Amino acid sequence: MKELRTKAEVQSSYPVMAELCGHLSEKEYVQRVADMQGDGYRLFGLYEREELVSLAGVAIRMDLFNGRHLWVYELVTAGKHRSKGYGHVLVQQLEEFASENGCSKVVLYSGMSRIDAHRFWEEQGMYEKRGYVFKKELV
Q1: Closest by alpha carbon to 53, among 95, 98, 12, 94?
Q2: How does residue 56 score in pLDDT terms, banded at 50, 70 and 90?
Q3: Is-contact 47 66, C-beta < 8 A?
Q4: What is the pLDDT of residues 87-98, one digit of tens each?
Q5: Residue 128 pLDDT > 90, yes or no?
Q6: Which of 21, 74, 105, 133 has its CA 20 to 30 A from that of 115?
Q7: 47: number of CA atoms within 13 Å, CB side?
Q8: SS3 category, 90
């Protein structure tokens, strides 16, 4: 697992992240990551022979319900590399990173329609569906 810190590294990860966040242009993606990095966002990639195969955006957060935890904003494996165990490896490394940084939990949001993603998280062991997220667009 390697942290992507520079603009060039982030930009090079766009094709993989676009599989999850295709609504963003490359320019928007790079700018959002830069903005989020100022608030503790970190982008980690898993590589196989120098090819990015899986990517995760995370941040260490604190709240009243979860205490200090690792919030997973995004986790995606490149389509041609799915079902090869890369996502599982990345999750294990993120869990180690969380523990090393004093986190007691890993927490994430997954959209209601993402049945395959739900199955993935449940198969990781000890991840369970715990609630709903409510959203209202402000115009």
Answers
A1: 12
A2: very high
A3: no
A4: 999 999 999 999
A5: no
A6: 105
A7: 11
A8: helix
